Amino acid sequence: MRLAELSKRSGVSTATIKYYLREGLLRPGRQVNATTAEYDEEHLRRLRLVRAMIQVGRVPVATVREVLGHVDDDSLGRTVRLGAALWALPHVPEPDTDDEHLQAAQHEASELLRALGWRNAELLTSISPAFRSLVVAVAAMRRLDFDWDAELLMSYARLMHRAAVLDLDFVETRETEAERVETAVLGTILVEPMLQALHRLAQEEESARRYGFE
Amino acid sequence: MRLAELSKRSGVSTATIKYYLREGLLRPGRQVNATTAEYDEEHLRRLRLVRAMIQVGRVPVATVREVLGHVDDDSLGRTVRLGAALWALPHVPEPDTDDEHLQAAQHEASELLRALGWRNAELLTSISPAFRSLVVAVAAMRRLDFDWDAELLMSYARLMHRAAVLDLDFVETRETEAERVETAVLGTILVEPMLQALHRLAQEEESARRYGFE
């Protein structure tokens, strides 16, 4: 297809597509003559992914380039390739202070993964940026004397593990490996705000059920 | 207690406490003489809440003032008071365009709440900001041709309802009504980043279980 059709089918303006091409976020089309290039379904799919990261996920262009580098690196195994792409996405900012709460939270979060029986706990605690985000979140709770017990944290973790199973089951319905990695990245960007909205709605529903509306 | 002790026990600097007092985010202490005021446990609790909103939730000061207005308004019933406080917290920004995807998503999200059998679906779809966030999230999926079915969306919603039950069970362990409302606001600010971190960790664990680390 030509640029105009790619724009129409993707809903992305030709000016924006040209910008993505210049920034190297989209592979050049196949040049058919000096002024015309031909694009295919793979361009369309990639455009969808880039647009989701930039417009929905508000991911900076340099980060998009980094994520795509991992998505395209088929020398990596699937877990590492998925992980590398997701890890490049923005995470919770690090706190300013490295206080005793952060140390205690580090210990508490490690214990949680072990208590859950997660087989890759050792690895996750040593290299995952999501583990670091969890530590930051637990430290914030402790700094505010929010006296949650380990059992409650485990219940939340089990629910989120069930969400992750749904995520990966959906990813596995995709046909090619490239599509699966792209879907995983898209999923993270699209599913997280949806879960947050569902969570708040569920709180309102449950609150109205318990306390009514007087 | 004096200002110095309030600062020590809360971990908030005296300069910041004075700023919160000037901005009306914290009630004045009981003046014991011209230069000294006395603070109590209620000040300490309120300081914790203000700090969580500003430092952890990055909520703007004007919004904090609005949320506190609802937290303190005991003329309201519990559901409305909780709702008003939580609704004042920042939500997903509205999309620039009101296209056909947004209309379809509005319909799809309403159907979801009805299919779930949520008793307050009618009310939530008409007034809740979280419902609007859900519509925006679903529209983003549709705009990208992300072909999720309604069944999958329902499974995610059921998981988040279970999370909401855990949230409210914890809120109910607090003794006074003021503490319960404060805990609900604190919970929203602290639990959401924690759930996101747990979700990503669970994806990594599940991915490693399924695909190993080649």
Strand content of chain A: under 5%
- Strands of the widest sheet of chain A, in order across it, are 1-2
Low-confidence stretches of chain A: none
Instruction: Report the order of strands and helices of chain A.
Output: HHEEHHHHHHHH
Distance between the termini of chain A: 60 Å
> What is the tally of helical segments of chain A?
10
Largest interface: A-B, 79 and 79 residues
Give the total of domains of chain A. Answer: 2
Number of strands of chain A: 2
In helices, the fraction of residues of chain A equals 55-70%
Oligomerization category of the chains in this entry = homodimer
Largest sheet of chain A: 2 strands, antiparallel
Q: Looking at the structure, what is the overall shape of chain A?
A: elongated
What is the gyration radius of chain A calculated from CA atoms? 21 Å
Task: Describe, in plain words, how this protein is organized in 3D.
The structure is a homodimer of 214-residue chains. The first copy, chain A, is mainly alpha-helical. Chain A has two domains: 3-86, Multidrug-efflux Transporter Regulator, Chain: A, Domain 2 (Orthogonal Bundle), CATH 1.10.1660.10; 92-211, no CATH class. Chain A has ten helices and two strands, in the order ααββαααααααα. In chain A, a hairpin with a 2-residue loop joins β1 (30-33) and β2 (36-38). The longest helix of chain A has 35 residues, at 177-211. The model of chain A has no long low-confidence stretch (mean pLDDT 86). Chains A, B: InterPro entries: DNA-bd_dom_put_sf, MerR-type_HTH_dom, MerR_fam. Chains A, B: This is MerR family transcriptional regulator.
